[in-house]
Amino acid sequence: GSLGWKAGMGLSQRSYVQGDASFHYTLPRPTVMLSYRFSPSFFMRYNYELSIHAPRVMYLSDVTTTDEVVPLPSGVVKEMSVGNPLLKPDNRNEHNMMFSYTGKKVETMVSAMYLYYRKNTVMQDIVRNTLDDGTTQFLSLRRNQGSIRMLNIYDYTTLHLLADKLDIMLYGAVARFWNY
After folding, report:
1. pLDDT over 90 percentage in the chain
2. Which residues make beta-bridge pairs with 170?
3. With contact defined as beta carbons under 8 Å apart, do 4 and 36 qualify?
4. How far apart are CA 158 and CA 50, in angstroms?
5. How many CB atoms lie within 10 A of CB 10?
């Protein structure tokens, strides 16, 4: 068999200034990839990447904007976005594992991805307010959440039943999410 590997490190600086508020982020991005070819037909690869993402500028502003106003017989509905200058960067850990097999009658690739947002995941929160004048407001807020875990498993398989005449392709996926 043959072993392959790759490692890398990225680093970026991001700064935002708005009035008296300023936001400065140092965002590292280490990555590693390992692969192994067991035989000409069977291959495996693993990737890991840590990435830290700063909140978008539009989420950090301490401003409320009206996105849409809909007049209804029962009152007015306003959709509004509300900024949150207290948002922190989130930490995303991504693990990917892939196995592939290529034979005369079968080709298959199974891939699994596990995402783990360790802390400070930026999530949307929608709050409904009804004012005294009958106006209904839907406020779209952003808040940091504890963590999110996502597992996705995919399978792509091709069966070669009759050479150059009949192939059957199969695809399946399973997804699981945990929020904390």
Report:
1. 50
2. 157
3. yes
4. 33
5. 11
Residues 15-32 pLDDT 10s: 988 788 888 999 999 999
Query: Which tokens sit at 178?
Result: 């945990």
Query: How many residues does the structure list for the chain?
Result: 180
Tally Cβ neighbours within 10 Å of residue 85: 13
Nearest CA to 109 out of 176, 38, 39, 41 is that of 41
CA distance 10 to 24: 17
> Which run of H or of E encompasses 69?
strand 64-72
- Structural tokens at position 121: 């995941």
Q: Which residues pair with 145 in a beta bridge?
A: 121
Q: What is the pLDDT of residues 103-121, one digit of tens each?
A: 999 999 999 999 998 878 8
Q: Which of 108, 96, 94, 120 is nearest to 167 (CA)?
A: 108
> Residue 38 to residues 5, 70, 94, 107, 119: CA-CA distances in angstroms?
15, 62, 24, 16, 37
